[in-house]
Amino acid sequence: MSTPPGPPVFTSPVRPAAVPFRTSPASPQPLAFSSGSSLPTSSPPPQFSNGSFELQQQVSTNIEDHLPAGESSFVLFSAHKVLKQKKQANVPSLGFGALVSPGREVSTGPQVIQRDPHRCQSCGAYANIYCNILLGSGQWQCVICRKLNGSDGEYIGHSKEDLHRFPELSSPMVDYVQTGNKGPGFVPVSDSRMSAPVVLVIDECLDEPHLQHLQSSLHAFVDSLPPTTRLGIVLYGRTVSVYDFSEESIASADVLPGEQSPSQESLKALIYGTGIYLSAMHASLPVAHSIFSSLRPYKLNIPEASRDRCLGAAVEVALAIIQGPSADLSRGVVKRSGGNSRIVVCAGGPNTYGPGSVPHSFSHPNYPYMEKTALKWMENLGREAHRHNTVVDILCAGTCPVRVPILQPLAKASGGVLVLHDDFGEALGVNLQRASARSAGSHDSISAYLESVQDEVAAVLIAKRTLLRAKDHSDAIDMRETIDERIKDIALKFGPQVPKSKLNCFPKELSLLPEILFHLRRGPLLGSIIGHEDERSVLRNLFLNASFDLSLRMVAPRCLMHREGGTFEELPAYDLAMQSDAAVVLDHGTDVFIWLGAELAADEGRSAAALAACRTLAEELTEFRFPAPRILAFKEGSSQARYFVSRLIPAHKDPPYEQEARFPQLKSLTSEQRTKLKSSFVHFDDPSFCEWMRSLRVAPPEPS
User: Fold this and answer.
1) What ranges does the record give for the region Disordered, renumbered to this chain (predicted)?
2) Helix and strand element counts for the chain (H, E)
3) Which of 21, 530, 655, 669 has its CA 20 to 30 A from that of 101?
4) DSSP letter at 263?
5) Which of 173, 175, 199, 177 is nearest to 187 (CA)?
6) For the chain, what percentages of helix, strand and coil (3-state, to nearest 5) are there?
7) Residue 339: what pLDDT?
């Protein structure tokens, strides 16, 4: 092609090309590039890693997009440098390793307020975090119309800190749930949009010294809780006492028998009664303190190990009040994840009464059978808690043996832990606080896990592992089959089944992963689009030593279409981008291709300007890349254009609805342009992405 004139001066805003694109393939976005700009002078110096350039910002953007402020990466290395000498590096007492934490606790949804909101009498706006509050009078000023409104005396406080107990004045987002005609005690406690509740299950068979220590720990514990935390208090001995937070002046409890599991009738009467058994701390802190102060030591003259303790029945009741009236909730608002609910048991002795119990004495003639039955019952209760996203931690203290083997299955099966303490003092108090706040649970949900997976990082790791085994062309063919099997296995393990079909749908949370692996399977690393095995071998070795950024580009090319005015639109790397009136840049890591459509190439002035802009973009994208990639330019229909076409997913054979779903830019074309595009394709046998997925008996995921 003839040498083009110099690049035109664009008026589009400067945006350095080294900043990574995060647009998903199914969501094209206009991206502005300066035709003559370089990296900003304020950028940090380039860093070279494994033979390729990368910016620290780019790595962190790709891997830590959604990390909350102050949180560390998921991978912690034992050292930041590695010894060169094998003899030194292999010293077993000081090895090198990485601690990988692939999951994290799901963030809670907005706080829920179980009352009518305060609204402006003039314009109807809601009281919120941005309102000015007149502390002495409790009046608040509307941020919309600036009118003063009353709060029925609720917003009266001595300082702004006093008002933080109101979620609407301390959080930018809250949800109001109106309970309608339900009784005053109705609280939809299992609505997971609220912060996950904590239920204390406390042994009431304690002697006075132990009880005094426990009371101090409990008082300190509730003082440490955030104001929006919902708390429940259950005591157990020979009976189960569930404390009612609706009584402000006295410690009041509903009592259930402990010799057997609570009946559905008794639980229904409890939950639908007038009592409030889970309440937010900002409303019930004084009540909680009065409950703890009312606890009394064990009065009967019976040894600690022989006292009746119905721990199993108490945990069942705690689990029931956490679940709440689920039948009514199923017709309510959409739920949002609030994390794991908590049951924290404070135990001073063994479970010797009611379900899951063992006899007081080991010499009981039926002890072995009863122990076996108790173990199974406790494990089943733990699994039931686990199914309802509830973790049971058991904190034991004192000098009385608690028979750990009986209690351990309950904690373990729910995802909790059992901890032994010398007494009920400071150490137990600290663990109470940490048990209520820690991230835990052996399972939040499959969807939450899949959402946390970084598609691009996972794809690069899979690709590197696969390429390690692809020593020659024969191995590469075998590795394509392993990719097929991996796709089928992920769909089988994590994907839902398509209704009225034997196909499994690939998980929608991983919508990018199969497309990237499809590029890997048919691209130059494993496919046959480059002719010589020596070239493929060199590419594979470069890929195995490349940084994340370059590795991703070598697997899945980035497609950018030139637009008038010097901007570029990122599109999925499909052959539907081959539009005759457009210029396209395809960055494939070690090669960058510039393709000019025939209609554009016929216009000498437009094609020269577009080609100049594309060359500038290609140079900016690869300015520090090593080895420096080839930059090839060619026109539609030329022999060299096959380099470009072979690296695009052939989507022209897919039905129109699938084309539009995965390549939305088609919707902006006129019917004439779409007809012209369709007629420009040459038929060949390579399957499209959707055809390949269905050949594996897997339905493609919905585009993200």
Assistant:
1) 1-52
2) 23, 25
3) 21
4) P
5) 177
6) 35, 15, 45
7) 58
Give kind and range of the element (H or E) at residue 392.
strand 390-396
Token output for 281: 């701390």
Strands (E), 464-527: 504-505
Query: For 674, what's the count of Cα atoms within 13 Å in the CB-facing half-sphere?
Result: 13
CB contact set of 177 (below 8 Å; sequence gap of 6+): 112, 113, 114, 188, 191, 332, 333
Cα 702 to Cα 158, 556, 660: the distances in Å are 54, 19, 12
Taking the C-alpha atoms of residue 562 and residue 614, their distance in angstroms, rounded to an integer, is 7
Reported as a single tens digit per residue, the pLDDT across 120-168 is 998 989 999 989 998 888 899 999 999 999 998 888 888 877 788 788 8
How many Å apart are CA 567 and CA 561, to the nearest integer? 8
**What DSSP element (H or E) covers 474?**
helix 473-494
**Tokens 């931690």, residue?**
393
Q: Are 509 and 450 in contact (CB under 8 A)?
A: yes
DSSP H helices in 532-670: 533-545, 548-555, 598-601, 604-621, 641-645, 656-662
Estimate to the nearest angstrom the gap between the alpha carbon of 103 and the chain centroid: 7
Tokens of 235: 């005591």
111-113 and 174-176 as β-strands: parallel, antiparallel, unpaired? parallel
pLDDT at residue 70 in the model? 37
Q: Tell me, what's the pLDDT at 5?
A: 42
Task: State which residues of the chain have pLDDT below 70.
Answer: 1-74, 82-85, 88, 91-94, 98-110, 177-195, 325-339, 439-443, 445, 531, 704
- Tell me, what's the pLDDT at 195? 66
**Eight-class DSSP state of 126:** B
Q: Residues 527, 467: contact at Cβ < 8 Å?
A: no
- Other C-beta atoms within 10 Å of 136: how many? 9
Q: How far is CA 94 from the centre of its chain?
A: 34
Q: Which whole-number Å values give the CA distances from 6 to 11, 595, 695, in the listed order?
A: 16, 19, 49
286 CB contacts (<8 Å, ≥6 apart)?
Answer: 248
Angle at 698 between CA 697 and CA 700, to 5 degrees: 140
CB atoms within 10 A of CB 251: 18
615: tokens are 């060359």
Q: What angle do CA 392, 393, 399 make, to 5 degrees?
A: 135
Sign of the CA dihedral 90, 93, 96, 100?
positive
State the number of CA atoms in the 13 A half-sphere of 120 facing the CB. 18
Determine the angle formed by the axes of helices 56-63 and 455-468, rounding to 10 degrees. Answer: 100
Total residues found in the chain within this entry: 704
Could you give the CA distance from residue 620 to residue 568 in angstroms, rounded to a whole number? 13
- 655 in Cβ contact with 691 (< 8 Å): no
The alpha carbon of residue 555 and the mean position of all alpha carbons in its chain are separated, in whole angstroms, by: 26
Rg (CA), the chain: 33
